[in-house]
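Supplementary Methods S3. Complex input for the iron/sulfur cluster-bound model.
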Amino acid sequence: MTYANVDEHLGLGLDGLLRRVSPNIGRILEKALADQEISVDEAEQLFGARGTDLFALLAVADVLRERAVGDVITYVITRNINFTNVCYMGCRFCAFGRPARDPEAYTLSIDDVVQRAREAWAWGATEVCLQGGLNPHQPATIYEDMVRAIKAAVPDIHIHAYSPFEIWWGSRRLGISEAEFLQRLKDAGLGSIPGTAAEILVPEVRRRLTKNKLSREAWVRIIRTAHQLGIPSTATIMYGHIDTPRHWAEHIDLLRQIQRETGGFTEFVPLGFIHERTKLYLEDGARPGPTGMEDLKMHAVARLMLQHTIPNIQVSWVKLGYKMAQMCLQAGANDFGGTLFEESISRSAGETQGTFTDPATFERFIRDLGRIPQERDTLYRPVVRGPVTLPPPRLWQPPVVQAMGEPAWVTREPIPTL
Ligand code: SF4
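Predicted complex, serialized as structure tokens:
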């Protein structure tokens, strides 16, 4: 039973549920069901939904998910490599970055990073995800050097690496344009970039989070440039701190505008704020992360706003926990994210979920929802382990990926027992 069909069990159907919601919310939900665009004002109203209104919102998001991408829930086998936690930036929401002399500061050598990528490939991963602090003690060429070294050792692994903040920093250190920096990384073997460091793309909020060092304009410019160079990215939001539903609606609207122009976002990933060890919470009075209802609404409203532009909506099991992630997968989301193996950034901020989910666990949670599990790669190509007997389902891919003309699916040997 899902939010979308629970009312059928009560003998009412979705129409019956929609008849019982408040008029304003009902009108917006009907619009979404009629494939019309939800405005920022309307999205803000949806974020305020409670009771039957909320239940109807979740049901409509689930219907639109099914229409856009069907019943498949995807996941990717990936390893996170947070290669340094040394960072000079001091973002107020971050508990990961450390000064160079901090006893907990660390920086992996390129050999260590390559070794981790080799292990990831041997364990069956199709992707490594590299992100780190802005470390002035590493050579200016470190970003390109790491990509080249990984590709030399593990040529077929997809390198998903470097947030727009790292692109901004790396290009400035080398004294070259962001476009030239991105092109050099692409030539070295970079496959895609994480759309992190977006936080909330509203200047009044960014000023308090990062002193606006990476401005909204800079984030958008770097993402646009990457997409124009044929480098896809994810899109994210970090919510539940000093932000409001108006900011959330404006943020998602901006992502939707960029996607219409570039077609380079592979998915949207809501990231709830993990507060425990952050200055933003301890000193600045930020909220202690989103509530469960806010998590559900974030995934549902995103589905309504992005249904025609970014149909893949990912849950972050690291932030949500498995059980809340399952609920969000019934409220508009369709991707379970990555296996990860290790992830230092959320853990540093106080998150207590595990740092590795094996594919069998993903499949158990997905089948428990009555949905169909499917491993994918970073570019949303189905991954088939072993001989192909039936073609796997076609997954939604963004225009930038379609233009690459990659094969429709990839094959890999069965996953070894870990
Ligand atoms: S969020 Fe990134 S840039 Fe900001 S302090 Fe943390 S590691 Fe540094």
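The chain has a mean pLDDT of 93. Residues 87, 89-91, 94, 96-97, 133-134, 165 surround iron/sulfur cluster (CB under 6 Å).
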